[in-house]
Structure formats: structure tokens, C-alpha cells
What we know:
The chain crosses the membrane at residues 39-60, 72-97, 103-125. Belongs to the fluoride channel Fluc/FEX (TC 1.A.43) family. It is found in: Cell membrane. It catalyses: fluoride(in) = fluoride(out). By secondary structure, the protein is mainly α. The chain has one domain. The protein is 84% helix and 0% strand. The chain is built from five helices and no strands.
Amino acid sequence: MSPFAPQLLALVAAGGAAGSVLRYSIGIWCLARFGTVLPWGTLAVNVIGSAVIGLIGGLIASGMPMPGEARLLLITGLLGGFTTFSAFSLDVGLLAQRSLLTALVYLCATLLFGLGAFAACFWLGQRL
């Protein structure tokens, strides 16, 4: 089957739409709850997305079968629409214009917690 088969593209599109709606919802919730000192919504989705992809990656690495269609729906679609690394880059740049220290704190927090969540959940996924 072609990687551009309509049914495969539909899986990516459906997952991407769901991930984007989740990202938007979390961003709005974080904005209302925590304000604008930091882009909390972007931080939250990057950490959550890293944790989820770490868990899925760990499960796959430990031998759990995952059909290509499920990977397209969950990893390429859902997590691709959910995580916001490009928005993260913009946020860091905008924060740096206001305060280099705030931008550096945000950058370090996102990398530390995102990679930490990935590592912990990858380890967990390999042991489930």
C-alpha cells in the first residue's frame, strides 16, 4: 500500500485533528489557571507528549506489536498534532525579547522535564 493511500492519510488527519484540539484545550486551561508569566500550555503539552511517546516507544522497544496504522494514528497524527515544539521555539524567542533569564528558565524546564518524562516512561514502557 502506498504511504499516501487515502485511508492512511485519513488516520494521520484524524489523529492530528484530535491532537490539535487537545493542545488547544490544554493551552486555554493553563492560560486561565496560571496566567501568562510563562507559556504553561506549551510546557504542559511538550512534557505530556514526551511522556506519552516515551511510553509508546518503550512498549514497542520491549516487543509490543503496534500495527503501522496505529503508529500513524497515535504517533504521527495524535502526538504530531498535540506536541508543539515549533510553538516552543517561538515562545522562547518571544520570552527572550522580554527577559533572557525567563527565556532560559523556560527553555531549560521544557528540556529537562520533557526529556525526563520521556526517559522515565520509556523505561516504564519497556517493563510493562
